[in-house]
Amino acid sequence: MITRTLSIGLLAAALCGGCGGSAVQGDGGVDHAVDHVSQNLLVGTIDASGPVVCITAPLMLVGGQAQCTVVQHLAGDGGVTTTTLQSCDTTGQGPCWALVTSPTTCPGGGLSFAIALDPNAPTPDPKNLSYDYSCALST
Question: pTM of this prediction?
Fold first, then answer.
């Protein structure tokens, strides 16, 4: 079994050289200026051309797993395909998402998303990918 993992934070840094600026610590414990907290949810968009998403807010865990929803948007010749990804803790194989710690990606601490791609599909062009996420916050 072959699993290809796309670390969104590392991908963004590689594609845009760190994106030429620093993200601002926003409300809700996220190192990403456009993410926000809404009704006990941390919501945002991950774009390969944007700043690294480093989540420092306390997330709700059920059975040790963060309660997040991640939706992939893949642009192609036929339009945009939208797919809700399962947690890699649930599926064990891509396409799926995981939250990981990395001092390189999030030097100030926190978690970043890693996406395991579908091993049976061609590797998509990263500029055609974006992800929306929402994670339940611990109360």
Answer: 0.72
